[in-house]
Amino acid sequence: MIQLKSDCLIFQTHDGEQIPCSAEWVVVELMSDGAQLLDPEVVHHASAAVLHYFKHELGRQFVAIGEFALALEKVLRGFGLSVYAEHPSLTAGKAAPLRVLESNLNELASNAASEGFELVFFPQLRRELKSKLEQSPNLLRFHGLRDCVKQLAGTGRWNRRCQSLDDQIVDFLRSCWETEPARRSCALMVV
Q1: Strand ranges across the sheet with 8-12
Q2: Confidence band for 95, pLDDT divided at 50, 70 and 90
Q3: According to DSSP H, which parts of 32-138 are helical?
Q4: In the beta sheet, which residues pair with residue 100?
Q5: Cα separation of 134 and 126, whole Å?
Q6: Strand partners of residue 11
Q7: From residue 6, how far is each of 13, 51, 60, 123, 148 by CA, in Å?
Q8: 19: helix, coil or strand?
Q9: Contact 27, 47 (CB under 8 A)
Q10: Which of 138, 129, 115, 130 is nearest to 169 (CA)?
């Protein structure tokens, strides 16, 4: 068997044909007209991440185009982009529409500010994450992070304490999310 380049996989089309090619070529073919609307660097890194996932983490050399496209769609949506894998080879097994739940971190901080700031905020944030995950979303999006941090820090301008608190909140959400069994079917986004 011929060894593939490191950035290539063997893609299987809907009619069973196997084509060795780079992930970026598949992305260009799948997205066609929509490709120029996205930042090329974001698409490049996202396709490289999906290729790495299939090739190194799953140890696969063969991937169905539809499977690759759906994984890439999930990654790009994780970046907050509205991307849909609509290709003739994907329409047969199309997944259900993406279910997105949102939570406003600034509102949670407002509730916590009247009671005890960070001491109340973090347990409240954990409860919010759990309650949203119980609703089985595909994407859980926490927004308003910057305003939330400034409110909890009691400042109007961004400073080192704000950056530290920002990092703590994101790390806390990630660690809580990783302990939840429902996370396997859900992506977490914090902005």
Answers
A1: 18-22, 8-12, 62-64
A2: very low
A3: 40-52, 65-78, 105-113, 118-133
A4: 139
A5: 12
A6: 19, 63
A7: 21, 9, 13, 45, 43
A8: strand
A9: yes
A10: 129
Tokens 């890439």 -> residue: 72
Q: Which two tokens stand for residue 74?
A: 């999930």
Q: Name the residue with tokens 């982009």.
A: 81
Each residue of 65-77: b (16+ CB within 10 Å) or e? bbbbbbbbbbbbb
pLDDT for res 145:
92
Q: Is-contact 63 9, C-beta < 8 A?
A: yes
| Angle subtended at Cα 155 by Cα 125 and Cα 105, rounded to the nearest 5 degrees | 20
Which residue has 């169905």 as its token pair?
Answer: 64
The two tokens of residue 67 are 């499977």
The tokens of 2 are what?
A: 């011929």
The token pair at 147 is: 């305003």
pLDDT tens for residues 118-149? 888 999 999 999 999 998 887 788 999 999 99
CA atoms within a 13 Å half-sphere pointing along the CA-CB vector of 11: 22
The SS3 assignment for 188 reads: strand
- The helix (run of H) or strand (run of E) holding residue 12 is strand 8-12
